[in-house]
Amino acid sequence: xxxxxxxxxxxxxxxxxxxxxxxxxxxxxxxxxxxxxxxxxxxxxxxxxxxxxxxxxxxxxxxxxxxxxxxxxxxxxxxxxxxxxxxxxxxxxxxxxxxxxxxxxxxxxxxxxxxxxxxxxxxxxxxxxxxxxxxxxxxxxxxxxxxxxxxxxxxxxxxxxxxxxxxxxxxxxxxxxxxxxxxxxxxxxxxxxxxxxxxxxxxxxxxxxxxxxxxxxxxxxxxxxxxxxxxxxxxxxxxxxxxxxxxxxxxxxxxxxxxxxxxxxxxxxxxxxxxxxxxxxxxxxxxxxxxxxxxxxx
Length: 298
Description:
Blueprint: H1 2-16, H2 20-39, H3 50-62, H4 67-86, H5 113-120, H6 128-143, H7 147-151, E1 158-159, E2 164-168, E3 174-178, H8 181-196, H9 215-229, H10 236-251, H11 254-261, H12 266-269, H13 271-287
Antiparallel strand pairs: 1-2, 2-3
């Protein structure tokens, strides 16, 4: 079973060309399934049936696994069994018809527009790290990039004269996004400083030694900016969420926001309509004369 799992991971890496992050997530999820099979003394993947898998899902849910994590695990199982069926190693899918327990829908955390402006309009010192970090923050918020898309960004993907950036998203899908005026200004200020570090490749964001910045380094810089400018925790995905929420609030064009975010399913994008409704409800409660509560007695 372990050998077949490793063969499937190699297939994902070499033929499907999934990202290292996705591959690691699938390996972890399927590792839990493999450990369950070994505990249940199931010697072949073909021996795992829907009752076994339902029991595993219930056990993980009781241990505190979220609904979204369990949905990802079931997706990983379906992918594995598609591969096993194609290879003639199995003839069923134990995840067929299974769905994870429903959990509370957690809305993504965002900055409101005033807080976003407060973050981005602080004074930028004419110094390598400050100018670079400003360009990172501006690009995240301007174009809604994923962390992996920003860390993998190369110079050839930027077209600042036309205000565009080409990114390679999940599933090796490419999309072209607009880059706002403030982000273009920040990038134009950064690129000459970048060149001074003599980078060995075309990475857009590099360290003072010229090495491409990794995800962890960017997360730490964004967190530091949030603590310094806002006095709160901040992570790259919060800037992406803020981009999507503010764009939808202004445009009301869900399909366009879906395309900019690179979501395969519009249902993923629809979560931002809930955020938008919360904003509208808040405005209504605070502004509408028939919504205000009386401070006196009825």
